[in-house]
Amino acid sequence: MIKIVRIYLTLGGSISAGVVFAVIETYKEFSFEAAHKVPPYSDVHGHSFRVCISMQGEADATYGWAANLYEVESRIDELQGELDHRYLNDIEGLEMPSLENLAKWVFDKLDGHIAGLESVHVSRGASGQSEGCIYRRANGANGG
Question: Does pTM surpass 0.85?
Answer without folding.
Answer: no
